[in-house]
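User: Please predict the structure of the protein below. I'd like the answer in structure-token form so I can feed it into my own downstream comparison script.

Assistant: Understood. Taking the following sequence of 184 residues as input:
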Amino acid sequence: MSTTRVPFARKSVWWAIGLSVFMIAAGVLAVASHLAAGIRDNILIAWLLILSGCAHVAFGWFARKAGEFRWELILGILYSFIGAFLLYLPFAGLTVLAVLLAVYLFWESILDFIMGFELRPQPSSRWFLFDAIVTLVLAVTIWKTWTTDTSWMIGALVGVGMLFSGITRLIVSLAARSAAITAA
């Protein structure tokens, strides 16, 4: 790493760590709310998706030197679009939410697989692959059970997805911080 990139890397790493912690907190909050009323869950999850979408875009912006920007931007747009849709139609019901979340988790897993393979030479790439597998399992679980157990699974499974997404990005950010310290 060149000396001109070290201050940028240090600043970016701290932002990435903060945003990762936010994503973990959003995931824990979504898991904790799984017993709440359906519409409240719908609105809460919609806002958490929008905020997590913003966090993905910000994470991508600060990690753009690592080549992650386009994938984080796509994930951020996907999160925000689905969150905005859920806010726009809050009475659409948990069934629609379950189907949309299964679709969004499926696409998130695909993008995480791509990012994991694209970053393969880096040791932290395996965490993106792990996140992709967990997210794909969540998507399939929602898809297979959405007609029977919709009320509890929405917050719980989406929260688990956000939690793993935040943990993955925190691990990657900590690895980047370690590399920036070593380069200094």
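That's the full token string. The two ends are 9 Å apart (CA to CA).
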